[in-house]
Amino acid sequence: NGISLTELALGWLVARPNTAAIVGARNAAQAVANARAGNVALSAEDLATIDRIGQSVFATMGPSSLMWDW
Prior knowledge:
Blueprint: H1 5-15, H2 28-36, H3 44-59
């Protein structure tokens, strides 16, 4: 899609229902890169693909992989 991994990750995050992204930047270039993510429009197919990849990784992590499952 011609976007950076940062843009993809933030674009996916803000596309999730009831979710907001809180990002930080160490320099102006990172702040600009984060702001570009606001222009990312992922399709339903893109979102489903990312979710499918995430679930395949999550499935291998075991029962203690959730940060709130301490």
